[in-house]
TrEMBL record, chain B:
The keyword Transcription regulation is annotated on this UniProt entry: no
Top-rank taxon, per record: Bacteria
Protein name per UniProt: Phenylpropionate dioxygenase
Native species: Microbacterium testaceum (strain StLB037)
Ranges of residues in domain Rieske: 17-120
Amino acid sequence: MAVSRTEVWQGGTVVASRPLTPEIRRIEIEVDDPAPVSPGAHIDVRLTIAGERDRRSYSIVDATDEGRRIALSIYTSPVSRGGAAVMNALAPGDRLELTQPLNDFPLRPGADRYVLIAGGVGITAMVGMAASLRARGADYRLLYAGRSRPLMAYVDDLREAHGERLRLHVRDENSSLVVPELVDGIEPGTEVYVCGPIRLMDAIRREWMKRNRPIADLRMETFGNSGWFDAQEFTVRIPASGIEARVRPNQSMLEALEAAGAEMMWDCRKGECGLCEVRVLGLSGDIDHRDVFYSERQKDARSKMCCCVSRVVAPADGAAVVEIVTS
Amino acid sequence: MPETVTAKLLDHPRNAWYVAAWDHEVGRKKILARTVAGRPLALYRTEDGRAVALADACWHRLAPLSQGTLMGPEDIRCPYHGITYDSRGRCTSMPAQETINPSALVPSFPVVDRYRYVWVWVGDPALADPDLIPDMHQMTDAAWTGDGLTIHAPCNYQLILDNLMDLTHEEFVHSSSIGQKELSESEFVTSHTDTTVTVERWMHDIEAPPFWLKNMRDKFPGFSGRVDRWQIIHFEAPSTICIDVGVAKAGTGAPEGDRSQGVNGYVMNTITPETARSSHYFWSFQRNYRLDSQLITTQLRDGVHGVFGEDEAMLAAQQAAIDANPDYEFYSLNIDAGGMWVRRILERMLLAEGRDHAPAPRRGAQLVR
Ligand code: FES
Ligand code: FES
Ligand SMILES: [Fe+2]
């Protein structure tokens, strides 16, 4: 599967916008310069958030007509960094700037079997993959985990399209995904695609490694915006340069440090590359590692963090503070 | 719909199987670097003999994987910083870290080993159906034997297809071996389907040209006399042309189907676009008589190699003239019927892929000389 890494920017017009769940909204865009949409593809959008130009990535849920009309699902998390609010405010007729489809998470044809695992809004990346596998007559299962049914988008459509191949795991209904059981049940030769919160991805990866399964069979799409704990405000200090910043819940530590004048290095800004690593000198509270860069051993050591996604949570009896050294 | 003006050069379909290499060129001793339909590939085999085609550019800093090393049963290691990938292009280890970046991978292209070739599909992998590989069964059928070579032709692939679809050029380009005036004097019949074109020509009761006289004498020692000669050119989209050629003693019934008093060969050609102006031209000459003679196999291969050298020189000269005269058009003759049907099929394939049919003009083409 070819991986498209060339960004081609274009314009698009919003043609529809409606809520799917209280937290997820579906937005359909007619693009000026259509390009084929491969399963797993996303687009990047340029947004003005709080007066600043920024970009956000959204998976393409489905597309019609050779990619002329694409649909996104926008998830408003309680700690959204502002992108969702801007996207949700879009109405038919509005113009926006977006890339042609990009793909870091391509579905590879030709595996013996597939298991697709979606947690929450991670389902947006899986809808197209599942449709493509079904069209090809592949052997696949689609597992969709969520908190409660009203919060889970696309359930009816997926049930209709995939019948028994779809399995729902709903926490409120006591049918939560049991990860060790899940991993035990995956036969060798199966390719696994996961998209969802970091907890889910970490748990699957941990069980996977424990069993010495080939790491190349496990594919993950990271959003870098979910953690083990709710995001809260904390303080970061760089004693060497005297910089101190408050990191708001809807802001990353990297953003806060940059705003405070620290010169930072980074590349992916989604917890994959490790370039934004900072060393931890002192800590009041705990680190909420939200990256996929560090191993479990490294995360347990609490000595470094990827500041583009990871955060600090307060101890029971005090304020959350981290003192760091930047590279 | 296709334009009425004949495109001088054609872009190539991407959703197609192209030959990347002879099967023996792809192995574990060295990784083969070859560009197929504009895609640089690193080709190798796994320990259990499966051919693999990965993009020849590492995910990290795009270093060519073809300069890397094969590791374990199926992995390839980048020559620059040592990232390893499996045969699917998935990263299996990264230097200096305990985890793997989940987006690390290089594209891996569908591959099929068939008819002594390694075929690669660089288009949409979901469409890569092995049943679409053109029929070249004479390459492996026990009733046939032969050998061939590859020409790296400095021209657009379409010029080679034109060359093979109209063999009247033999009279002028190959005058010392297979050319004769009867080629342009005899009638030909063209037929086509959605994906194939056939041009058939018979020359009755003629002198055998030198190449064919030698073949007749290999099968019928001491043969002399007149022959009936045939050429049945069969194109299969996008770029495979198998030509049924031969001569038989004149009047012994070859046109009616009895070829026992003659010699029959198949010129198997499959053309792989490399860039808009270069092609890999894989050919082989297969015969169905004196199967056990390596002498004849080698003589035929070398003989055809000489003949094709004359084509190669003409194709290079033609491409240079096209580039040097960007304002001149192509015109057509009656003899171009086969080649024009080939263009029609290719233009439809390109339209189906949502693409215009002309390749991008070469940068600075207008400024050349
Ligand atoms: S910038 Fe890549 S992990 Fe933070
Ligand atoms: S370029 Fe391949 S590992 Fe760096
Ligand atoms: Fe020729």
